[in-house]
Amino acid sequence: MTDTIADRAARATPVPVARRIRGLSDRAIAWIFVAPTIFLLLAVNIFPLIWTINLSFTDFKANRAARGTEYIGLRNYERILTDSDIWLTMQATAHFLFWTIFFQVLIGFTLAWLINRKFRGNDLWTTIIVLPMMLSPAVVGNFWTFLYQPQIGLFNYIVSFFSGVDPSSFEMIGSVTLAPWAIVIVDTWMWTPFVMLICLAGLRSIPDYIYEAAEIDRASKWRQFWTITVPMVLPFLMLAVLFRGIENFKMFDLVVQLTGGGPGSTTELTSINLKREAFEKWRTGYASAYAIILFVTVFGLASIYVKALNKVKER
Amino acid sequence: MSGFLNGLLRLRRGPWEMVASILIGLGVVMLMQPFWLAAYTWSFLTTLAGTVMFIVVSHFPE
Amino acid sequence: MKTSKFLAATALSATAFAGMAQAEDLTLCWAAWDPANALVELSKDFEAQSGHKMNFEFVPWPNFADRMLNELNSGGKLCDLLIGDSQWIGGGAENGHYVKLNDFFDKEGISMDDFAPATVYAYSTWPKGEPNYYALPAMGDANGWFYRKDWFARDDIKAAFKEKHGRDLAEPKTQKELLEIAQFFQGREIDGKTVYGAAIFTERGSEGITMGVTGALYPWGFKYENTPGKYDMEGAVNSPQAVEALEFYKEFYKTATPPGYTNSYMGESLDAFKSGQVAMAMNWFAFFPGLYADPNTGGDKIDFFVNPPQNNPGSTLGGQGISVVSYSDHKDAALEYIKWFAQPDVQKKWWSLGGYSCHNAVLNDPGFKDSAPFAGDFLEAMANVQDFWQEPAYAELLLAMQKRMHDYVVADQGTAKEALDALIKDWTEVFEDEGKL
Predict the structure, then answer these.
(1) What is the distance between the alpha carbons of residues A183 and A63, in angstroms, rounded to a whole number?
(2) Residue C212: predicted pLDDT
(3) Which Pfam family is one of those matched by this entry (chain A) (predicted)?
(4) Which superfamily does C143-316+393-433 belong to?
(5) Neighbours of C253 (CB within 10 A)
(6) CA distance A69 to B44
């Protein structure tokens, strides 16, 4: 008779405990195993969320805990939702979100489609294209401030080379009209490869025989693209949009390094504004309400996305 | 269209989820649109209503 | 002879702190900049005398407030000694971050009368002007100006200036002259290179543009309140003088600064000057020793002037006091450091190494004015300094001002009056939350 670990464990279990365990159903034992994880989730996710909701009805300040805290009802929400400055940060976020996703999907898909054609060195090109994504956002933000420098910046120089305007006549970061586009350009530069990779995975997953069958049916290339390629890649594209959308809704590091939210507040995205309220002004209660508003928005959007994703998958 | 209304009346999941999604979408657009401050003010309630509704109706039968 | 004094001091402190002779590890926190390196050098004497080991935690300016205030708010033990910014004193005192030093000063015979009154008021007291001391003035500082003396001395430039403005090109005596000179240099060719007027502070993220704008506001007679301590800002913050000063700063930014300096603070100002892009620049006195020593643009190519007056003299205060953090486990050793640092001899050496001492023994020394090319300007500046709010809620007040000023000056939104009105609204809200209004 071999003496397995289980046997030894069984023998070592004190009799009262053993009796109790023997009476448990499989389901109960499963619960016991899952319990630590659930407990951990409750402790690190659910509890803070509930606590944040609680704080959002108070005037608590984390740096001045001794000051005393009062419940002020919905006043925080009222203040945030009637504050036209916060409304402006929402608009800045919308601009950033819309255009980054638009350009990244457009360029990313095109690149993926091009690189998916078998040609020599396409692996090398993939690697080169993917490089920006590997960098730290803080570093990217920092060196693009140099590229955007009106007097010595490469970006301004290239624009002037092609368009003939004086390089120091425009300031990508300093001008109210250009700064929102400056951050769109940098984010697109950095994250288009990510969208490309996902699209590439989609394209590679389309079996060749579908195209061959279409070929036999004499479908034109154009028709093949719209009736085979696009629908088959769509779920992947949705995934990319979902990722980029959520990532950019909470965009912080890149833009802080690049513009610091300036000029004025034109590139002060919601998360930058929230960080200032929470950790520079230390209005913890107010910032909690702010965070709850953002949380509900992202949660709602994510629900729609997940639903849409399931729908596309079913097709 | 009548199928949609029918689904609503019989508390089916599909059409109700559609209503919730539209509410959420509307709330997000209201939150980020640059035209009307009052719409921004009420955006959160709209999104919240949509999200809560979504959670509830996703337990309705198919 | 000096050493004997030091020995005597050591003996004194040894008796004062009898029973805790064992060496301890002290950590001093400050911003990462030139004076901090001077302090490391200076502190070697303290290590030699006390046997304690000094460690340093220096954080770059843009993150300094964030990092250190987090540390204090969380009751962290990283810093035993903190050279915290002057605006933090209210929060440091009211939230119990800093040790109150009155008893210690009395016991050790350290008198605040030995330090320049403006620095004691700004760096040590809370509530303002009351004899409650939470820091020892460590580093006096103010916002000043420096310029290319060699360009100002060139005959062709001098002649061109005289022709244009009918007066000699010299250090400006008023803010408006300052702007005139800056505009004169803007876009001018010097040695085949286009140069610009002046580098000024426009930074959005931390405190930059506020420190720059107040450099214009104070000389125009700006006041935070009509009656000190009453928080009645209407008519003070948005007075006609304040509006004029703010419009002046915007004109300065639009017409006399290099392109691309839309988010610039200390580092950018130094870069602009050292790379020969600008004729003048504003910056803190703390950098002046380093600028003077610069091999390319220092020496006889540079000179300094105090922030010019307009309706009255006025400079923006910088600088810091040194405090003992109340969460420290080594409070006694930290106090020992402060006691050592307060000695006149140490303060003299501090000045000679590049730190701006606030001790009267240094400042009132007849040789002080000539001890450095900027020493006289420093004295003049410190005689008329004004500081931002030092309230416990200073961060909220500062962020509001950063936003309103940057919106108006850099982002071209609204008028100066509207910006200041909005600022009053923001500040009123903060003081209402604080229960002070």
Answers:
(1) 32
(2) 96
(3) BPD_transp_1
(4) Periplasmic binding protein-like II (3.40.190.10)
(5) 20
(6) 25
- Are residues A147 and A14 both part of a single domain? no
Question: 3-state DSSP: chain C helix, strand, coil percent, rounded to 5?
Answer: 50, 15, 35
Provide the Cα torsion C90, C94, C98, C99; round to 10°.
Answer: 120
A95 dihedral zone (left: phi>0; alpha: psi -120 to 50; beta): alpha
A10 against B16, higher pLDDT: B16
Where exactly are the structural domains of chain C? 24-141+319-386, 143-316+393-433
Q: In what order do the strands lie in the sheet with C196-199?
A: C196-199, C278-284, C143-148, C302-306
DSSP designation for C126 = S
Nearest one of C169, C170, C179, C224 to C200, comparing CA atoms: C179
- Rounded Cα distance, C122 and C141, in Å: 11
Give the pLDDT confidence score for residue C19 in this predicted structure: 43
CATH number for region C24-141+319-386: 3.40.190.10
Chains C and A touch (3+ CB pairs under 8 A): yes
For residue A33, what are the domain limits? Answer: 5-47
- Best probe of the C interface among A64, A160, A252, A259, by most C CBs < 10 A, is A64
- Torsion sign over Cα B34, B40, B46, B52: positive
Q: Do A262 and C259 touch (CB under 8 A)?
A: no
Whether the model clears a pTM of 0.90, i.e. scores above it, the answer is no
Q: How confident is the model at residue C21 (pLDDT cuts 50, 70, 90)?
A: low
- Contact residues, chain A, for C411 at CB < 8 Å: 176, 262-266
pLDDT recorded at residue A91 = 93
pLDDT tens readout for residues A17-26: 777 766 778 8
Q: How far apart are CA A246 and CA A302, in angstroms?
A: 8
Q: What is the pLDDT of residues C119-131, one digit of tens each?
A: 999 899 988 888 9
Determine the pLDDT at residue C379. Answer: 92
| Domain shared by A130 and A194, yes or no | yes
C283 and C146 Cβ atoms separated by less than 8 Å: yes
On whether both A302 and A159 belong to a single domain, the answer is: yes
Which of A80, A265, A266, A283 should we substitute to test contact with C (largest number of C Cβ atoms within 10 Å)?
A: A265
Residues of chain B neighbouring A81 (CB-CB closer than 8 A): 40-44
> Is residue A291 in some structural domain?
yes
Of the candidates A87, A296, A307, the beta carbon closest to that of B17 is on A307
Cβ-contact C94, C131 below 8 angstroms: no
Over residues A209-265, the pLDDT tens digits come to 988 999 898 888 889 889 888 888 888 888 888 888 888 988 999 999 888 887 888
- With respect to residue A12, please indicate whether it lies within any of the assigned structural domains: yes
